[in-house]
Amino acid sequence: MTIVSLVAGGSRLTTWIDRYFVDGAVNSVGIFSVLSSQSLKYTVTGRSQQYVLTILIGLLVVVLFTSLG
Predict the structure, then answer these.
(1) How many whole angstroms from its chain centre is CA 49?
(2) At a CB cut-off of 8 Å and minimum separation 6, what does 50 contact?
(3) Hey, where are the domains in the chain?
(4) Alpha-carbon gap, residue 63 to 20, rounded angstroms
(5) CA–CA distance, 37 with 69 (Å, rounded to integer)
(6) C-alpha angle 54/63/68, rounded to 5°?
(7) Do residues 54 and 40 lie in contact, with contact meaning Cβ atoms separated by under 8 Å?
């Protein structure tokens, strides 16, 4: 009875963490991607220098987020 209740409690805890933290983080990344792509859609100029700068800034942001987390 004790082992079963511990396993059930652990299962409820990991389900809660997955539902609110992991799904929240993934949904936030998705919303950020959609919003940033909508804003980038209006800045298309056809100049390759601007594309390279945008890619470099994006890579810099990704590196900063991964190094902090």
Answers:
(1) 27
(2) 43
(3) 2-68
(4) 25
(5) 24
(6) 135
(7) yes
Cα four-point dihedral sign 9, 13, 16, 18: negative
CA distance 39 to 60: 19
Q: Is the pTM of this model over 0.85?
A: no
Chain segment 16-33, per-residue pLDDT in tens = 999 888 888 888 888 988
Side-chain-side CA neighbours of 7 within 13 Å: the count stands at 4
Query: Of 38, 34, 33, which Cα lies nearest the Cα of 58?
Result: 33
Helices within the chain (DSSP H only)? 2-17, 23-41, 48-68
Average pLDDT, the chain: 86
